[in-house]
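hey m, so remember when u said the tokens were messed up on ur end? i reran from scratch. heres the input so u can diff it against urs
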Amino acid sequence: MTADRPTGDSRAWRSALLARVVAEIEAEIRRAWERLLLALEVEPDSAEAVELAWLVAEDPAAYDWRTVDGALDRLSCPTCGSRLAQGPAACETCEFHHRMRFGAREVDRRHVPPGNEHALRVASAVTRTRHRYSARARVGYELTLPDLVAGALPTTRQAQAGKALINKLTDDECDRVVSFAQVEQLARGR
């Protein structure tokens, strides 16, 4: 594992709510990885665990997305040295594994609308690798993430309306807003 600061560090997030939600998602990711290690009787932090993490990273379709993200979090990129899939956007190895993560399985949680798990997974990936995305993509996914964790799923119409408002903001405004109310206020009249 690399020495990078945890992605859930609250100093990095646009709001305390987002910091809490990211910490919750990262705890789920750690638990999913730990369950796989336990099921296969693999010692954490062992050479066998690293080998398993590479196997998961190379075949994400065989695992739930949280398990895949847990494996990626435990690997260093051989090209750039960052946590795998979280290195600079120019790192082809990180970019490859970042895209591969989307091949992992998604099973909707109980009592959420169909598609919520996919939306949660995409928003989580964008939020946890925010440097790979534009300011407009980051703000949309980051502001939506707490509602997705709570089980909501915006309609296509709601998502398109939110995107239309976000597209009226500057990159700097996108990076500063902490709520959709602020997005609406800034976009009003433009």
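this time it looks ok to me. The radius of gyration is 17 Å. if urs says something different then somethings off w ur setup not the seq
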